[in-house]
User: What shape does this take?
Amino acid sequence: MDKLLEVTDLKTGFDTERGLIRAVDGVTFEIDKGKTTGVVGESGCGKTVTAMSIVDLLPKPSGQILGGNIRLNGKELVGIESDKMHQIRGNEIGVIFQEPMAALNPVQRIGKQIMEALILHKGMNKREALQKAVELLEAVGIPSPERRVVEYPHQLSGGMRQRVMIAIALSCEPDLLIADEPTTALDVTVQAQILNLISKMQDSLGMAVMLITHDLGVIAEQCDEVIVMYAGRIVERAPVTELFSNPLHAYTKGLLASMPRLDSVRKSELPTIPGQVAPIHEFVVGCRFCQRMGKAENIDKRPDYTEISSGHFVENCSQCLEGFND
Assistant: This one.
């Protein structure tokens, strides 16, 4: 399978009052052309920081890539000149942000915000870009696109605003779409519509998708491969069917066990993962899930990231693979 995105030993940090902290600590993965890779984990695990590192949208000046490589179609993105990254972002890589109301400019008409990328990256004039904007709004399922194109974000519903974000992200037919919690704050019906729309556009354009979510149900439905992150690291990565049928890491098992199931006993309590994620400035060098579980003997040496079977990688901590039954 052709590799579209290759991330190797990525380390991303932020300058804080407590000094430099690593939000992403040695992350390695690939995304194949035309495939969907899901990234799942609790809030603060590094999912969004990883994505923003790829498109160089870390908050400046505190956010910085400390090491590693990011290659898109073989081109190195770490350290690339800002004007060259400007040509890649929005053109070869599209991004759907988590909060469309915050991502859209409230004082610009919808059409102008779609036209911007078309004029910049595709060399269209304003008339051509406006016509393409109308076509994109129609393609993402917004009724009366000729009227909506001159409206402002506050005049649209949450679902429509997210569709506008998809139209902007896909306007230049990118090779990779990064969708960061694309269904946050949407009702269940609209969530399904948005996810179906992303799949439809993916099939149409042949692009790869990096889908960031908390929802394992979405992962099961949408993804070819799953990355499980915990405390800035990947603890497990596998094809979706393999991960759900044969999870190896204790954290992955805990996430899966906490999912509501139709066949579960009524009124029974859902299992939860014990403990809490340590504050980022207190992360240990060794296994950070053992740190959460109070296993001090495993927190001094970082576990190897090992391929257990074809395409199935895991942070190889013996305690996390055996479980925490005591």
Notes: The mean pLDDT is 92. The chain has 13 helices and twelve strands. The two ends are 42 Å apart (CA to CA). The first helix runs from residue 47 to 54.
